[in-house]
Amino acid sequence: MAENKPQLEKPSRTEVVSVTDWVACHNSNDNFIVLSCTVTSADSSAGITGVGLILNTHDGTTLASFYTALSSGSEIAYPALNLTPGEVSVGDNVSAVAQGEWNGQHFFFEQDLTISNC
Fold this sequence. Notes:
Blueprint: H1 13-16, E1 17-27, E2 32-41, E3 48-57, E4 62-74, E5 76-77, E6 80-83, E7 93-102, E8 105-114, E9 116-117
Parallel strand pairs: 1-9
Antiparallel strand pairs: 1-2, 2-5, 2-6, 3-4, 3-7, 7-8
């Protein structure tokens, strides 16, 4: 007898959350490179229970990353990180990643950005 393993349909990452308002810039007031975005739940549930950012150079070297759990969940998260300009500066191309967990499902978004002035 053949084993029955039903496949549950899971929404794609674009259906569970959206990531918008990407920013990669140099803040000359405090001399930091800033990376930020907005992560929004696809519905009105407070389903975002984890979120993080990764900043890579154009060749894939990781410059900074973080991840944090949200104990009560959230409908919207505003992850951001600051780092000293060391390896990147205004005009450099970088790769940014927003990733996390929404209602038990992992999401991962990658965006190519150019560092501008804030």
